[in-house]
């Protein structure tokens, strides 16, 4: 069998090894566990109500508060399980389509191979003409090359779904880590998947004259109004338009989440046409370490202009580094799970007080609004970015984490008065701080 046909069969075999039944079972298992979690929540609530009638004083109230926290945790776990079930179903449906397409392509390839074998077999028995056989050989192999390209597209499309949904599964905080739908990719593999999708995105734009003109003008609002384009950009690059606030944000599974953060990234601002204020000043950053675990944390803020002056906005990013990590010096991973923070960011005019927009974490998966990165950018070239201020509230998992962030922000503000950063504690239940940044 020639190389072309072998490659088609190899790719088809790769797709057909997957089990839609197994994925369906996992989705059902998630929902079964979800029901058990909700039953446990109901039991906890009934116990809490009974105990609340007799427990008084500080110790009793503390115990009741703990039961309330347990109940809340069951809600979050049930939500994780439901979202995970949906991810398994998305993967299942994508696999079913890929397998159907693979079977069709394999059948077409086998038919072409049989025809090719027949042509050369006939020639070997004195039938036909060499020139005609040679021409037919080229035509059939040309069709096989097209089939191979189609087969590669089938695999790439499924692999992209697996990457996106698998990432969502791996970052859940409930008991579902081991059910992740795909192996962890390294940055090179992620980049390869995205690069393979760019031609498809370009094709969508090329088919629509309105989109072509908008792209040439840099009119991203019009480009993103096309649902097919918007879906691809969100799936592979993470950006999503929020019409209620007229700004763009990012999903938790965005490509940026795979690359974490390093100071070097700030030096790349000119490449993307950004001119930003940021809290990475002369090597001094807002960083702290959890004394119990040795885990390191980093908070960074940005605000200013993007897209070579065509847009403005701000960002709040939270990153982590495990104790004893072998990652390069200065590199932090995007915060995941319980380390994620709930941020409400507001971009306003320092001179007039006008609030341009607020982002309460629209890009976060699920309904908890927790994310590693609150980004909000509006396309408008007429806003004086030098007058931008940023306010935000940050909610974290516990008071100890809130106090560490507060202490580090206060230290940084005192060390860099030119940043005009003020920070205060807001509440312990939930643990929240707020800041106003007027550099």
From TrEMBL:
Pfam families to which the protein is assigned, alphabetical: DUF4474
Domain of life from the UniProt record: Bacteria
Coiled-coil annotated spans: 67-115
This protein's UniProt keywords: Coiled coil
Classification via InterPro entries: DUF4474 (IPR029322)
Domain DUF4474 residues, every copy: 232-413
Protein name: DUF4474 domain-containing protein
